[in-house]
Specification:
By secondary structure, the chain is mainly beta. The strands form two sheets. Strands 2, 4, 5, 6, 9, 10 and 11 form a seven-stranded mixed sheet that branches. A four-stranded antiparallel sheet has the order 1-3-8-7, with no helix packed on it. The protein is built from no helices and eleven strands. A hairpin with a 6-residue loop joins strand 5 (46-51) and strand 6 (58-60).
Length: 116
């Protein structure tokens, strides 16, 4: 079992930055691929970024490439999402996900609002 807790969301002006964190319980964090997803009001949940268990491989949605960076610290059981040059369309609830085969865990989400 893995429990995930996101933090770092908030209100930011367009062009600003935020850093999201996802802290995981348990000693098996390092074997999971980790991802950040988001869900805007009235829209389906979408993948934002994903990172392999070792951190050696990452992938991003086209909409965030060049602006967002996913990273992880396996010693701290934490995955991060650095978000720069934020746009109003980045407004959403951001969820942390851990996956390994059929095992799939989700956090409760943290809200990011980009508005002037």
């Amino acid at each position: 079992q893995l429990q995930l807790v996101e933090s770092g969301g908030g209100l930011v002006q367009p062009g600003g930055s935020l850093r999201l964190s996802c802290a995981a319980s348990g000693s098996i964090f390092s074997i999971f691929a980790m991802g950040w997803y988001r869900q805007a009001p009235g829209k389906q949940r979408e993948l934002v970024a994903i990172i392999s268990s070792t951190g050696g491989s990452t992938n991003y949605a086209d909409s965030v490439k060049g602006r967002f960076t996913i990273s992880r610290d396996n010693a701290k059981n934490t995955v991060y999402l650095q978000m720069n040059s934020l746009k109003p369309e980045d407004t959403a609830v951001y969820y942390c996900n851990a996956s390994l085969g059929p095992r799939d865990y989700w956090g409760k989400g943290t809200t990011v609002t980009v508005s002037s």
